[in-house]
């Protein structure tokens, strides 16, 4: 566990969603159970709050999922911000069915949750003749149930949501695909970033002149120094004629190799920026 526990006050971290959401689970894994989260309505708000040192110590933002793929708008938000990546968390998404305490399975008539969570649990849900109600957030559904205490409504949400809102977890791990991970980026303000001696991963942003073979030349140079390119995401450059920029995640066993790679590819790019140098996250 990559907890940042100590004698200092708990970190205040901006997250997207309500208390009990998967962003909060990721925050607790990285910073420890004592972390204070600042719920935000949107990822844009996460960036805004995380950038303000008066109200937060940084933020956490989902960036990709093994089922849904990359969250492209979040890459764009990252590029436009002055936040840096200082860590990452790969969180196994476990969907659970929960009810008000004492409600039996046979009394359920409706299941409320975010449409993605519902889709992830169709195999389980198809066994019952329940009305499926789509909502804006899994944790919000849990919060509403905790207030209404409806004897005929169940929600799909995280185990943390059940704990926070005092709900009974009546059917755990009801998701169909058991290998569903979301990658979360740990973000901090550039002026607050400290060097991580054992860093073995970096995220960079670059674009070339888009001439024939220009991207291949960059990738070849990265390969030459034995660096694993674990992610390459392209984006159209606004206002250009079909020109693209790239986000690349690079894994290495030596900081010197990474620095050498930068030296080799810098002359081949029109812009090169480091979004973060950090430790590779572990799946949990």
Automatic annotation (TrEMBL):
Involved pathway(s): Amino-acid biosynthesis; L-phenylalanine biosynthesis; phenylpyruvate from prephenate: step 1/1
GO BP annotations, alphabetical order: L-phenylalanine biosynthetic process
Residues of the Prephenate dehydratase domain: 12-189
Domain ACT: from-to ranges: 203-279
EC number: 4.2.1.51
InterPro entries linked: ACT-like_dom_sf, ACT_dom, Chor_mutase/pphenate_deHydtase, Preph_deHydtase
PROSITE patterns the record matches: ACT (PS51671), PREPHENATE_DEHYDR_3 (PS51171)
Site (Essential for prephenate dehydratase activity) location in chain: 182
MF GO annotations: prephenate dehydratase activity
GO cellular component: cytoplasm
Transport recorded as keyword: no
Key words, A-Z: Amino-acid biosynthesis, Aromatic amino acid biosynthesis, Lyase, Phenylalanine biosynthesis
Catalytic reaction list: prephenate + H(+) = 3-phenylpyruvate + CO2 + H2O
This protein's name: prephenate dehydratase
Higher taxonomy: Bacteria, Pseudomonadati, Bacteroidota, Chitinophagia, Chitinophagales
């Amino acid at each position: 566990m990559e907890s940042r526990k100590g004698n200092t006050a708990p970190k205040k971290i901006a997250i997207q969603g309500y208390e009990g959401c998967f962003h909060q689970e990721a925050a607790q894994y990285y910073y420890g159970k004592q972390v204070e989260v600042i719920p935000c309505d949107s990822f844009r708000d996460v960036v805004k709050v995380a950038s303000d040192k008066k109200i937060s110590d940084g933020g956490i933002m989902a960036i990709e999922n093994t089922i849904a793929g990359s969250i492209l708008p979040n890459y764009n938000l990252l590029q436009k911000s002055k936040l840096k990546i200082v860590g990452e968390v790969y969180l196994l998404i476990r969907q659970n069915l929960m009810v008000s305490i004492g409600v039996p399975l046979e009394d359920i008539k409706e299941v409320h949750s975010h449409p993605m969570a519902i889709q992830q649990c169709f195999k389980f849900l198809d066994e019952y003749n329940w009305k499926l109600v789509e909502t804006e957030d899994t944790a919000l559904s849990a919060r509403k149930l905790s207030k209404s205490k409806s004897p005929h409504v169940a929600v799909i949400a995280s185990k943390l949501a059940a704990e926070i809102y005092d709900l009974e977890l009546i059917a755990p791990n009801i998701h169909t695909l058991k290998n569903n991970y979301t990658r979360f980026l740990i973000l901090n303000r550039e002026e607050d970033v400290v060097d991580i001696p054992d860093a073995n991963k970096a995220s960079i942003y670059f674009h070339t002149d888009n001439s024939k073979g220009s991207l291949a030349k960059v990738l070849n140079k990265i390969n030459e120094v034995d660096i694993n390119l674990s992610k390459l995401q392209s984006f159209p450059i606004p206002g250009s004629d079909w020109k693209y920029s790239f986000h690349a995640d690079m894994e290495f066993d030596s900081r010197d190799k990474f620095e050498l790679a930068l030296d080799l590819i810098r002359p081949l790019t029109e812009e090169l920026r480091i979004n973060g140098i950090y430790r590779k996250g572990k799946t949990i």
